[in-house]
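From the shared-data thread, chain only:
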Amino acid sequence: MNRLKAIYIIRGKLVTVSGLHIGKGKDTIEIGGMDSPVMKHPHTNQPFIPGSSLKGKLRSLLEWYMGVVVPDRTGQGKPYDGGEDPTNHPIARIFGTTSDRYRGGPSRLIIRDAFLDTTWADAIEKAGLPFTEEKSETAIDRIQGSALTGSLRQLERVVPGAEFNVEFLYRIYELATPDGGATDQGQTDETHFQQLIPVGLKLLEMDVLGGGGSRGNGKIHFKDLTLQIITYVHQNGHIQESIEAPKEFPLVIPN
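Structure, as tokens:
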């Protein structure tokens, strides 16, 4: 029988150490306007971090960590599809895959959009301070050693010290074998969680998020991360829910 066994919920804060730029693109050209604005909520106009940006970066970092980044026929490094046995590959199970050989159920990891922490945002607004800053960037004329004519551009960044609330959900499934045999009691998903999720988040702290990382943008760290486990027990046709108290969730990379 295939069924949901548990949901692991990681909550905490993502804090910007340097300016963060996750761009939204521009549909119009404004005289004197920002060349590269950041993503903002359409109602509050406050910056936020899309869950897709976090998930894509985590996937990329873990694919490099596991050594499964390979160029396709066009020379591009596209998301890893799980190889010959995607059903049992951690990347395919955790993040999903388009492989027609996959039989592992839904992707395990769900990442919510991260919005500004209300306490931090209220304090900034009361102080009359902005949520974002403008950063000027330019190319250098190699001969003159000065700014290259016409290369000046304006980049918008979320200010250093901004706090975003983050939430990661990881689902544990018990899956029967293709012939209807016994399940692994969710042990495979639990192992993948323990071995890779803390590593992925730690790698993100050591890397960058968003654009312009090689030019100083995108350094972040996580704060006050907790793990809460919700378990579902099936007995006599009924489902019982067991909710554990949140506990500290450390980020470590195994030796």
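The chain is about 20% helix and 25% strand.
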